[in-house]
TrEMBL record:
Residues 2-101, 179-382 form the DUF3444 domain. InterPro entries: DUF3444. It holds the Pfam family DUF3444. This is DUF3444 domain-containing protein.
């Protein structure tokens, strides 16, 4: 802990080297549930970095070793970045003792003995592997134990991404060859500076079909030797509800639903120009499967004349509505339609219908109406406060008919 600048206040954050419990499948809306509805499950992590108010904190999952009452060690080789907005995923600190290398022959170096009083719940155990140089990282990335429903969905899912060649010289995706105008106020390029990229983040990348950010990739590795290279694994749609209206064209990009890491080798990028923005990908409880849905407060593009028989070849001629997500529930997503403010390249405000904002309710069975998320910045004091409450949107993620219709 450290003393805060405010009177009689103290800041408490997870510290490097500590062990903590995370809420499994954490949701920021849990506060809406009654105590009877809250059934918490936990997962344990080692904290790998100090908390940073800009990027959050890095952790690594710990698994309970089979045959031991309270002995844990790292599982998997990938680190997890917990963003500042998700800091409440941390439930509580767990007292622990790090085992020394020569403490027991059958105990790997770097293991933790956790306080048994903090781990009374039943946990899945991992077998102690044959250890090389007494390291304590168990790699489960090639495990055959995959959820059967995910495997079934994987077989049925259409393949949207074919670029999986290791050490590829694949060129960075060009944003349709048109000159994208500068934003009026906010520097969106700053959102994808080198320091913003972290392992295990999900990012949206520009599509090579219509130059809009409709592809998703998981950062597997960042190479800073001899320049800067990002190694990503593509994500592909793996589960859509049985009653959801689906595309007839299996090559149409899908931006909502559950996505799993596509097998095969990773793709390398030496430039950040193909990347649009980091995606808020939720946990599903399944390994390497992420949930991506429109979230309250986000800005998305929706297909203006949406219908299931839209084709991938016709995407460049599609028109879109720009909307702010107001509400999400099991039945529909409520949105407010935005319109561009005259005299600005990428400033938008709520479109009015009479004295009220124009809103729509999009049924969850029609979630494929959502084309892609658009990076945004809420304006406050710009232009003497006359634009307060308006949104500035990233011009590179705006459809051409929206971006150029007034030019």
């Amino acid at each position: 802990w450290e003393k805060h600048s405010g009177r009689d206040s103290i800041k408490i954050y997870p510290r490097k080297g500590e062990t903590w419990a995370l809420f499994k499948n954490w949701d920021a809306k849990w506060y809406l549930l009654s105590e009877e509805q809250r059934k918490y499950e936990y997962e344990f992590v080692e904290v790998l970095s100090e908390y940073d108010e800009t990027v959050g904190i890095r952790v690594a999952h710990l698994g309970k070793l089979k045959g031991f009452a309270s002995l844990f060690c790292q599982i998997g080789k990938n680190e997890i970045q917990i963003a500042p907005a998700e800091i409440l995923r941390f439930s509580h600190r767990v007292p622990s003792y790090r085992m020394a290398v020569d403490e027991r022959k059958d105990v790997p170096k770097g293991s933790f003995e956790l306080d048994p009083a903090s781990i009374t719940m039943k946990l899945e155990e991992v077998s102690l592997p044959k250890l090389d140089e007494r390291t304590c990282v168990i790699d489960l990335s090639n495990s055959d134990e995959a959820d059967s429903s995910v495997e079934t969905a994987k077989k049925l899912a259409s393949m949207h991404y074919d670029n999986e060649i290791e050490n590829s010289d694949h060129p960075d995706i060009d944003v349709d060859g048109q000159e994208v105008p500068d934003s009026d106020f906010f520097n969106f390029d700053g959102m994808k500076s080198i320091d913003k990229f972290q392992v295990n983040q999900v990012w949206a990348l520009y599509s090579d079909v219509d130059s809009l950010p409709k592809y998703y990739g998981l950062i597997k590795k960042i190479d800073t030797h001899r320049g800067f290279k990002l190694h990503i694994a593509w994500l592909e749609s793996c589960y859509l509800a049985s009653d959801m209206v689906l595309w007839k064209d299996k090559h149409m990009p899908i931006s909502c639903g559950q996505f799993m890491v596509k097998g095969g080798r990773v793709q390398q990028y030496s430039s950040r120009s193909s990347f649009s923005h980091q995606v808020r990908a939720g946990q599903t409880g399944k390994r390497n499967v992420f949930a991506i849905y429109p979230r309250e407060g986000e800005i998305w593009a929706t297909y203006k004349e949406w219908r299931p028989d839209l084709t991938c070849s016709g995407l460049k001629n599609c028109e879109y509505d720009i909307v702010e997500v107001l509400e999400e529930n099991p039945s529909y997503v409520k949105v407010s339609v935005l319109e561009r403010v005259d005299g600005f390249n990428s400033v938008f405000r709520h479109q009015k219908s009479g004295n009220s904002s124009l809103t729509r309710e999009i049924p969850v069975v029609e979630l494929l109406r959502f084309s892609h998320q658009i990076p945004s910045f809420r304006l406050t004091s710009e232009k003497g406060g006359s634009l307060r409450g308006c949104w500035e949107l990233d011009p590179a993620a705006l459809p051409a008919h929206v971006l150029y219709k007034l030019k």
